[in-house]
Amino acid sequence: MALAFDRLTLFLALFALVYFLEAIGGSYLVSAVQNIERQFQIPSKLSGFIVSGSDLSYVPTVIFISYFGGRGNRAKWIGAGCVVIALAHIMTASPNFLFPVNPPELNLTNIEAQLTPDDSLLQEDAPLEALLGFQPIKDRIPTKIREALITKLSGHSLAPRTPELLNGFEVRNHTESLYAIDEPLISTIMTEANSILVGDESDDSELRRHLRQYVQNRANRHDKDLKIIRRAAIAPFAFCGQLVNEVRESVKQLKCNRNHGNFAPLAVIFIALLALGVGRTMPWSLGVPLIDDNVKRKSMPVYFAGISFIRILGPIAGFLIGSFCNMFYYTSPTPPGLTSKDPTWIGAWWLGFLMIGSCTIIPSCALFFFPAGKTKIAPSENGNVDATKKRQSLRLFDKHMDKGNAYGVNDDGSAQTIKEKFFTFLQSYKQVLSSKIYCGSAAGRVCDILAFRGYLVFLPKYLENHYGLPQYRVQIYMAMFGVFGFALGTITGGLIVRKLKLSGRRAAMMVLIVSVINAALYFSKGFLGCHSIVNGIGRDGIATNFNYTNACNAGCGCESSKLFPVCDSTGAAFYSPCHAGCRHVAVNDLTTYELEFADCECATGGIVKKEFCQDNCKYMTYVFFATVISGSFAGGMGVVPGMLILLRSVPPTLRSISLGLQGFMVSLCGTLPSTILWGVVVDSACLVWEKSCGRIGACTIYDPEKLRFRMHTTYALIRIISCLTDLYVWYHAEGLNILDEEDEDKPQSEVEKTEKATADAIEHIPMVTIDQKTSPRP
To answer: Where does the Kazal-like domain lie (predicted)?
Structure first.
């Protein structure tokens, strides 16, 4: 008895663990989508299709695996499926190593020519205009100051053209910078220029001397200057400097001209997700009936709630792992100046897949090799099996597969032909589909997944763009509020069903009520708007057709600049430091890499940095996540009664088949189109697209109003359809038995005879027959 109890406990522990790990992978994939988009420069519609890869393979395989797996050793099938899942996760991470980004070999001939001064500039009588026109000096000294110097030294007044310089300008004494050339000397030159503009004298000898010194240094420090320019060109931010931005554009063009594109890594990820879909078919469709065979019906709500809670803990862990991995850059070393708070950050998405896959292998193998044990339990002296022993026994084979041709055997004991097996296969599914309750319940769950899956996939992008939350914080909030609320709701729903003994229409009414509450709460989120910094940049760009170039940054070469929001002291936001006209970058703190951009022609005060950026989203963020946890709690409460209604709406012999068919319909009509549908909805609100090699890449800025209303209206409309199907189930659910035990009047000895006969039938089936059965023909 102790051995049987230990086997049952050990099996349930292993099953709960692999179920938990399988759920981690699903939510972690959600946290990795945006990073994959950014690394491989793909739009949401394509990433949505790639994420649907697991469902493309799940759909055609689940109906066969649930049918044949339900007739064999279910522990072995589940273990094999989880091994496939583990290998698929590891394969998903492999493109980061199989297709590394090689250092670009740039043709910098033009840049080197601009860095190399003409001999005429080294002469004592070099014209001031020529010295100020030397490209490194031209990049560093603002245009209006250069023009004002020439005007003043030519004997003309500054009043007509640059009256703001009549009293000079603020000079900042900069020290050496990682991204600037000969910065202390430039500060000296700026001081001399300011003295000329505010003074009455027109002696420019000191200015010329320092300018010639700067030019001479470029001839002597050519290699060092080139290294600084290349470092600045690959930084995550862009600032005003023609040389730097020309190198940045050259790097982009070099990547576009490579022989291989992003097809190969995306193909590997897609194939891995196809394998993942095959593995996912087994734990759910075979595991739930297996548990149902080994616990009492009245205890099933609690067991199912517990298993669901453990499974839901998986997404919480997945989001936490996603948050952890998003703190690290996807490659090493991290570009200086780029932090996880930046909207262009690409997290180490591959790291989580490696962790999850490695942890899944061992318990999966343990399930695969789990001993079947003996099917016979010794009867007591009166000839019946002890009830305690029966409860503690472990049925790895379906206890209801004891009649007719369940195992491919005719009533007379002869093996079925291929045609007879196919007929039995079709009859099984026809019997499942004849249940109105089953069809209504399955349709409702399809709508639930169609609404929920895609919404969850793109929710991190929505929160980052709409509320200004960084990726790593989004994952933590989703785990804390959304997934935890759903898990708590699932446990509560299971306890309510058990405590109130809900059955039939009462259980169906509970599902209907919580579905209506969930739809209403999520629809209300469409009215929770605010103005984040990124959204503000998008609104400002509407008036100029998203052309952020103006007079103060026209000569900066900002065309290739990526989104890097910064603000001046008044809170005015800029697309990037380059668009703010900033010519100097200072690293205030090397530990946190706090950046300050100075000498900004377009910004009030001449300084911009991220710390100046403030929005009004803090309060709305709190309200948003309050509705998230409430709506998720309501949605979770319907999981246990909904699944028990579906499980009891068909004969016990068809439970695995019904779950497999439900998985088929959910994937084909729910999960598979969900990410594609939501990708289209999200992309429809895009304002600014990144350009990658002449084609559209990922979206960087969205229209906040359109994105908010379209996402939550779409969700609510789909959930309304789900509520109508729940109403249909309630109408037909009268008399449905959920918690009462099956007929136990049959003597225990007959049960034992049935189990033994089933085992003997399996042993005497020819291997050829088994091979034909487990290898369905196309």
So the answer is: 546-604
